[in-house]
Amino acid sequence: RTVEHQPGRQGGALDDTQWVRRAQAGDHDAYDELVRRHQRAAIRVAATIAGSDRAADAAQEGFLRAHRSLDRFDPRRPFRPWLLRIVANAAKNEVRSNTRHRRLAERALILRVVPAEPDDPAVQTEERDSLWAALARLSADDRLVLGLRWFEEMSEAEMAVVIGVRPGTVKSRLHRALRRLRSELVNQGVTDD
Fold first, then answer.
1. Which listed site, 48, 77, 127, 129, has its alpha carbon 20 to 30 Å from 69?
2. Statement: the pTM of the whole predicted model exceeds 0.70
3. Which residues contact 162 (CB under 8 A, 6 or more apart)?
4. Angle, alpha carbons 45-192-126 (nearest 5°)
5. Nearest to residue 4, comparing CAs of 32, 41, 31, 30?
6. What angle separates helix 102-112 from helix 52-69, to the nearest 10 degrees?
C-alpha cells in the first residue's frame, strides 16, 4: 500500500514547500512529485463532486490549472488546500458541462468512490448503500464539504481554503450538510430523527 506524503513531513525527504519552490523554478520533475504526492486526495475530492467515473479527468484538469497558476502561488502557504480548491472547481465545472450525465455520476459515486472494507463488521452493506444513496441526493457543495471532512479528514481551516470561504462559514456549511444528510436518511427510513 502506498503511503500518501503529507505536507511538512520531515526525515530527509523534501516537503511540499521545497518541491513547490523547485517547480516554480521550472523543475518539471518537482511538479511531477507534487502530483504524485497529492493525486489520490485530488481524485477523492473530484469524485465527491463529479462522481468516480469523471474524477480522474477532473483531477487532471485541476493539476493542469494548478501548474499554470503555480507562479502565483505563495510557497509559504500550504500547497494541499490550494491545490484541492483548484481540483474542486475543476470538478464543479466538469459537472456543469456534463449535466446529462449527472445521474450516472451520482450512481457511480454510490457504488465506487470509497467502498467499505468487506470484512469490516462495523459497516453493514445495507446501511452503507443507504448512506451512499442519501449522499448522492445532496448537492455537489454538500458532498464536497462532507467528503473533505470524512474522507480527507481536513481541518476547518484547510476546508475553507479548498471551498474558498472563511473558516466560520465552513462550520455552518458542514452543519447544514449534515442536517440535510440526516433528513435524507430519515426520509429513507434508515434512522429516526
1. 48
2. no
3. 45, 81, 84, 85, 88, 144, 148, 154
4. 55
5. 41
6. 100
Q: Are 17 and 73 in contact (CB under 8 A)?
A: no
Three cell numbers written together for 120 = 469490516
Contact of 114 with 44, CB cutoff 8 Å: yes
Confidence category of residue 192, pLDDT binned at 50, 70, 90: low
CA–CA dist 180, 176 (Å, integer):
6
Distance CA 175, CA 83 (A): 24
**pLDDT tens across 98-118, in order?**
654 444 444 444 444 444 444
Closest Cα partner for 78 from 22, 159, 171?
159
The residue-averaged pLDDT of 176-186 equals: 87
Q: Are 34 and 20 in contact (CB under 8 A)?
A: yes
User: Rounded to the nearest 5°, which phi and psi values hold at 46?
Assistant: -60, -40
Q: Which three cell numbers stand for residue 24?
A: 516554480
pLDDT tens digit sequence for 41-64: 999 999 999 888 889 999 999 999
